[in-house]
Design brief:
The protein has 295 residues and is α/β, with parallel strands linked by helices. It contains 14 helices and 12 strands. It folds into 2 domains: 193 residues, Periplasmic binding protein-like II (D-Maltodextrin-Binding Protein, domain 2, 3-Layer(aba) Sandwich), CATH 3.40.190; 87 residues, D-Maltodextrin-Binding Protein, domain 2 (3-Layer(aba) Sandwich). The strands form 4 sheets. It has a 5-stranded mixed sheet with strand order 8-7-9-6-10, with helices on both faces. It has a 3-stranded parallel sheet with strand order 2-1-3, sandwiched between helices. Strand 7, helix 5 and strand 8 form a beta-alpha-beta unit.
Length: 295
């Protein structure tokens, strides 16, 4: 079974562990991770056509349902981000970013700062300056005195803390971002429910293992993510653990926030609910069968 990932990152470590450390075999499914450089819509349509069995991410599934790309479901997450961004010590909250330069990537980070700026009535380019960069640009940004904050996935927090920056929580309690995640088509769920369950079970087992085996997790990160030094891999893992570890949970609050952000970014008036974008029955079954709590 093919699982499409966009690029190597520690966020996807549970998927690599499921394949490389034998958890997919133990669960009775042959799960193979591949890196696919396609648009989000293209990956969803490949999954709908059966050319891909699974893909990531949850935000892609939310967008697919919002924009009517097809019937797809999120099955579990990899992590839940509770921090909006990393910022210099003089930045204490979102409002402090007014008049500042902020580094983002091209996806979730850009969509989130755009959405939150709109909520504050800010004009992009006037009240806040957005600077776009790739993964390495965002790592370098922590040493750039012209950048006040970096909006990025949880693992970037390692470089932020190392540079003496602080992590800024979301401005409202319900806001959180479910990163990564195992997703598939409703067709595969209907036609091969046992296979879907085995894939989810493999991820649950791998997630629990990574949360309790630091050394093995770091070795896997060094093997799978070539741009990370061992020090980087250790730092990334420790940040994940400090912020709650890898988790499979998907919440109503998280989907509400992701729906609001993506609807605003894509010019869609509708919102979607947890029920519309997910099927958590396989996750609940795997937790009970394995006696594992991955919240």
């Amino acid at each position: 079974m093919l699982l499409a990932l966009p690029y190597p990152t520690t966020n996807f470590l549970p998927f690599y562990a499921a394949e490389d450390l034998g958890f997919s075999s133990r669960a009775g499914v042959d799960l193979h991770c591949i890196h696919v450089r396609e648009t989000k819509e293209r990956k969803v349509r490949l999954c709908l056509a059966g050319d891909l069995d699974f893909y990531t991410s949850i935000s892609t599934t939310v967008e697919a349902v919002l924009r009517g790309w097809g019937d797809v479901k999120a099955l579990c997450s990899n992590q839940t981000t509770l921090y909006f961004c990393a910022a210099r010590q003089e930045i204490a909250e979102l409002n402090d970013l007014q008049g500042k330069r902020v580094m983002v990537g091209g996806g979730a980070s850009n969509n989130q700062i755009t959405y939150l700026s709109k909520k504050l009535g800010w004009i992009l380019g006037s009240d806040i300056t957005i600077v776009r960069g790739d993964a390495l640009d965002r790592i370098r940004a922590f040493e750039d005195p012209a950048i006040a904050a970096v909006i990025a996935r949880e693992e970037y927090a390692y470089w932020a803390v190392k540079a003496g920056w602080r992590l800024i929580p979301y401005p409202e309690e319900y806001m959180r971002w479910h990163g990564g995640g195992l997703c598939t088509s409703a067709r595969l769920i209907h036609e091969q429910p046992d296979t879907v369950f085995k894939a989810v079970k493999a991820v649950v087992l791998a997630t629990d293992y990574l949360n309790h085996h630091r050394q093995e997790a770091i070795e896997l990160a060094c093997k799978r993510i070539s741009h990370l030094s061992r020090e980087d891999a250790e730092g990334n893992y420790d940040i994940h653990m400090r912020n709650g570890g890898y988790t499979c949970a998907i919440t109503e609050e998280g989907i509400r926030y992701q729906s609001e952000v993506l609807a605003s970014a894509k010019g869609v008036s509708k919102k979607v609910s947890l029920r519309e974008v997910s099927d958590l029955s396989f996750l609940e079954k795997a937790r009970v069968e394995c006696n594992i709590d991955t919240n």
